[in-house]
Amino acid sequence: MSEYDWDPKTYLALMAEEVPDYHRLQDQLVVAASVHTSAKLILDLGIGSGLSAARVLDALPQATLVGIDNSHAMLAAAASSLPLRRFTPIEQRLEDPLPSGPYDLVISMLAIHHLDGPGKADLFSRIAGALRPGGRFVLADLVIPENPADMMTPIDGVEDKPSSLSDQLTWLTAAGLQPSVSWQHRDLAVINSTRPDQSTAHVKWPAAVKSQELPHS
Ligand SMILES: C[S@@+](CC[C@H](N)C(=O)[O-])C[C@H]1O[C@@H](n2cnc3c(N)ncnc32)[C@H](O)[C@@H]1O
Predict the structure, then answer these.
(1) pLDDT (tens digit per residue) in 6-42
(2) Which atom of ligand 1 is nearest to the CA of 94?
(3) CA-to-CA distance for 146 and 10, rounded, in angstroms?
(4) For the chain, where are the E strands, in sequence order?
(5) Ligand 1, closest atom to CA 1?
(6) Which of 5-14, 81-90, 91-100 has the lowest mean pLDDT?
(7) What molecular function terms (GO) are annotated for this protein (predicted)?
(8) For 188, which DSSP code?
(9) Domain-located, residue 30
(10) What's the gap in Å between 73 CA and the centre of ligand 1?
């Protein structure tokens, strides 16, 4: 994605042009987030205008959501469209300390690829610290695909710093999370990570697996 001032009015048109599978990725984010049926408090990192958060809140009607973003315009659009009693907007950077939790669920779609490798690794460890034991982190984002021909999204190399799946799985594991890939299509992927709770901390989990692509719902 090229650099621009994020504008909620043109955002979907931009996604249609630069991330044609935006809605498929969002579907898979919602599928992965919905598994956490008892989630009460959610944190959305880079919530933008709230389009993905709205779908997650619809799927988890008992939950409230804190959304952070450093774009005032995008956050204002989220605040005007999401239900007031279920949404707390916070204008801040992903690099800043996360608003205090603990969270049952942390979600992020198409935002964390704006951080470089060390920035992602640092954020993953702060996410692990903000999650309740047993909580889950669902990351739906751009990745560097194994086959360069699968890179569909224009990357400017300045604002956009996607990493490979394997690097991100390594950083998530180093952060103390248990990650697995629930969906991948070309340069898009969804990674589910769980913070082990004490009762399962001793269990040796299998290495992260790449599941088959799920049918588009
Ligand atoms: C492609 S939009 C994704 C919005 C939303 N998550 C969605 O699913 O439609 C990326 C968002 O990440 C935000 N963002 C990018 N880098 C950020 C940073 N370092 N700190 C906070 N927000 C950031 C942008 O302002 C923008 O709203």
Answers:
(1) 999 999 999 998 999 999 999 999 999 999 889 999 9
(2) 20
(3) 31
(4) 41-45, 64-69, 87-91, 103-109, 131-142, 178-185, 188-194
(5) 1
(6) 5-14
(7) methyltransferase activity
(8) E
(9) yes
(10) 11
- pLDDT score, position 208: 44
Band of pLDDT at residue 132, cut at 50, 70 and 90: very high
> Which residue has a Cα nearest atom 10 of ligand 1?
111
Q: Is 64 exposed, middle or buried (0-12, 13-18, 19+ CB in 10 A)?
A: middle
Q: What is the pLDDT of residue 154?
A: 85
- Could you tell me the pLDDT band of residue 212, with boundaries at 50, 70 and 90? very low
Q: Which atom of ligand 1 is nearest the CA belonging to 29?
A: 8
Please give the Cα distance from 88 to 69 (Å, whole number).
Answer: 11
Q: 3-state DSSP call for residue 27?
A: helix
pLDDT(53) > 70: yes
What is the span of the domain harbouring residue 49?
A: 11-200
Ligand 1 neighbours, Cβ below 6 Å, are 6, 46-48, 51-52, 69-71, 74, 93-95, 109-111, 114
Q: What is the CATH number of the domain that holds 52?
A: 3.40.50.150
Q: Calculate how far, in angstroms, residue 111's C-alpha sits from the geometric centre of ligand 1.
A: 4
DSSP 59: H
Domain count, the chain: 1
Distance CA 111, CA 138 (A): 12
Cα(106) to ligand 1 centroid in Å equals 14
